[in-house]
Write a structure and sequence with these properties.
Strands 1-2 form a two-stranded antiparallel sheet. The chain has about 300 residues and is an all-alpha fold. Strand 1 and strand 2 form a beta hairpin. Helix 3 runs antiparallel to helix 9. Helices cover about 70% and strands about 0% of the residues. The chain contains 12 helices and 2 strands, in the order αααααββααααααα. It is flat. The model has no long low-confidence stretch (mean pLDDT about 85).
């Protein structure tokens, strides 16, 4: 066999005597000015807090206090239980809202309208003070007791947060179910699958890609909203921080401490949310988004390559 020599395309070869074009990047002076202003404002804020009468040593002294750690545990527990009530209730309300039965659809619409239209704090006080209206709770042979003994601060917090969250999760789940093409449901019914099995096996797995991102945001928002239950006497992180601040004479420092713990917990939840979204993005994108470690490694590789090229 003879080797075929490939000749270069004349169009690809620069003409004799022509100089190579040197690209000069455009300078964005507005970015430099904005960066300087932002840094100056940050330095001014740090300086202002440094000059304030704040006992910063109190923050590390109480950071791992037993009462604070108990508050962190109760905050996480309340977040998990309230979100569980909200997710289960939201799925049921979304199915009811999409039902062709006008009665169930109307009930779901009224529930969502009421709980989304009233503040969470108002709902918490409403549940907590229902004992002024009902002296007893009477469920016949199942349960009977005084309302004040039945409606504990924990139950008040779960009802106030969980039932309110169910209204928001209902709209999120409904949007996810509507995002699945109707042809999927029609094909499943043509194969003889029941409506419930079609939801479990076909519709809900595909809807998770739409449901998961806003659900992660709701979890983070729920973690912060748990601070409202201090108003109904349930001891969690914010309530314990308040009590320690009043007893130690450092209330502002304890607020900073509580804010630091909320930032730690929300940051951990944000990382978990990212990886869950990445997992459910497998079927919708050809290449998965890079993980934070992959982004850092890519930036380091780019920086080292630029440094070698400059040398």
């Amino acid at each position: 066999m003879t080797d075929i020599e490939k000749t270069a395309d004349p169009a690809d070869t620069p003409p004799a005597g022509a100089e190579a074009i040197k690209a000069i990047p455009v300078r964005h002076y507005g970015r430099y000015v904005t960066a300087v202003i932002a840094i100056a404002l940050l330095v001014a804020i740090i300086y202002a807090f440094g000059q304030g009468k704040i006992n910063w040593h109190a923050v590390p002294d109480y950071f791992f206090d037993d009462r604070i750690m108990t508050g962190v545990y109760k905050t996480l527990l309340l977040t998990v239980l309230s979100m569980l009530i909200g997710i289960l209730g939201g799925i049921g309300l979304a199915v009811m809202r999409l039902s062709k039965n006008p009665v169930t659809s109307s009930i779901a619409w009224f529930y969502i309208w009421f709980f989304r239209g009233t503040p969470v704090l108002v709902q918490l006080f409403l549940w907590f003070n229902l004992g002024l209206v009902f002296e007893y709770i009477n469920l016949g042979p199942i349960y009977k007791n005084y309302w004040s003994d039945f409606m504990t601060p924990l139950l008040t917090a779960l009802l106030g947060l969980g039932l309110n969250e169910a209204a928001y999760m209902a709209e999120i789940c409904r949007a996810g179910l509507l995002a699945v093409d109707e042809g999927q449901t029609e094909a499943a019914h043509a194969l003889g699958m029941s409506h419930g099995r079609t939801l479990r096996r076909i519709v809900i797995p595909q809807a998770m890609r739409v449901i998961v991102p806003p659900t992660g945001n709701e979890v983070i928002n729920m973690l912060k909203t748990t601070s409202l239950v201090a108003a109904v006497q349930y001891p969690e992180l914010f309530r314990y921080a308040q009590d320690i601040g009043q007893n130690s004479g450092a209330p502002v420092e304890m607020y900073f401490l509580a804010a630091a713990w909320y930032l730690i917990m929300t940051s951990i939840l944000s990382v978990g949310q990212y990886y869950i979204e990445r997992y459910y993005a497998r079927g919708s994108s050809r290449s998965l988004p890079p993980t934070p470690w992959q982004k850092v490694r890519a930036h380091l590789t780019t920086f080292s390559s630029r440094k070698v090229a400059a040398a």
